[in-house]
Every structure is written in structure tokens, then in C-alpha cells.
Design a protein that fits this description.
By secondary structure, the chain is an alpha+beta fold. The protein has 6 helices and 5 strands. Helix 3 packs antiparallel against helix 4, helix 4 packs across helix 5 and helix 5 runs antiparallel to helix 6.
């Protein structure tokens, strides 16, 4: 069963409780384990996969990483992105934060190199209305791609 939970705030209510109850699993233990493993992502929605062995009623958890947008918004100290990202900015993040997010997401991103992954994160900044080091992310992407082509 796959679901999105807020970091450290899973509860036995829907959708978790009703799905796990019929399987005979101790829902309280599952909730406690999810909250323990997601507490560092407090305030962000985190993908979690719960697998239950019907024969033994044992469960395993697989906790994913929050979406790039959630990590960027946390870094910028904002709740949500801009409704008009082309004309309105909501925050700014340093280039070092872009690298940290690209490293943290790792193989979840499509780029083969850290630079390509960073470009993908910068592209998300465009969609959210977040500047990077005070610079428009579109201009930054163009300059990074041009610099890579010059090598």
C-alpha cells in the first residue's frame, strides 16, 4: 500500500487504519514506525510504502524522499509557491541549497551528473517562483547550459 503522509504525523485514521485493519496488523505499531522514520521531514508530505505479509502479519516500510518542490519550499521558508511564477517571486534559495537538494534526491532525479540534477531542481524553482541566489532561475539555467556547452 502506497500513501503520502505528513512527516511525523501519521495517524490510525484513514487511509492507513481502514486499509491495514482487515490484514490483522497492529496499526499502532505501523503508525509509530512511520512517525519515527519520517520525523525529520516534519511539515512535508513523504511517500511511504507499507508491505504486509498476510501469513505472518509482519510489515515492512519503505520511506521515500519528499518531492523537490517541498524541499525547496522548506529551504525558502515558505508554505507554497507562487500562483504567478513568471511575474511573482515568493522566496530565494542559495545555490548551495540547490546542490544539497540534488544530492539528497540522488537517483530520484533524471540527470546522470550532479550538474544535470541541479538543473532539474533549478527548473522546479521556475515553477514555484523561487529565485536562486537572487537570480532569475530561467537566466541561471541558460547560463549553466551555455557554460556546459562551452566545455
Amino acid at each position: 500500500m502506497s500513501l503520502l503522509v505528513e512527516g511525523g504525523k501519521a495517524s490510525a485514521g484513514p487511509p492507513l487504519g481502514p486499509a491495514l485493519g482487515p490484514l490483522g496488523v497492529n496499526v499502532g505499531q505501523v503508525v509509530a514506525k512511520i512517525n519515527e522514520e519520517t520525523k525529520q521531514f516534519a511539515g512535508m508530505r513523504v511517500p511511504v510504502v507499507v508491505r504486509v505479509d498476510a501469513a505472518t502479519r509482519a510489515f515492512t516500510l519503505s520511506v521515500g524522499r519528499p518531492p523537490v518542490a517541498a524541499l525547496l519550499l522548506k529551504e525558502a521558508g515558505k508554505e507554497k509557491g507562487s500562483g504567478k511564477p513568471k511575474t511573482e517571486t515568493v522566496g530565494d534559495v542559495p545555490l548551495e541549497a540547490i546542490r544539497r537538494i540534488a544530492d539528497a534526491k540522488g537517483e530520484d532525479l533524471f540527470g546522470r551528473t550532479v550538474e544535470e540534477r541541479m538543473n532539474q531542481v533549478i527548473g522546479t524553482c521556475v515553477s514555484l517562483g523561487i529565485t536562486v541566489g537572487g537570480e532569475d532561475p530561467r537566466a541561471l539555467l541558460k547560463s549553466r547550459i551555455a557554460a556546459r556547452g562551452a566545455r
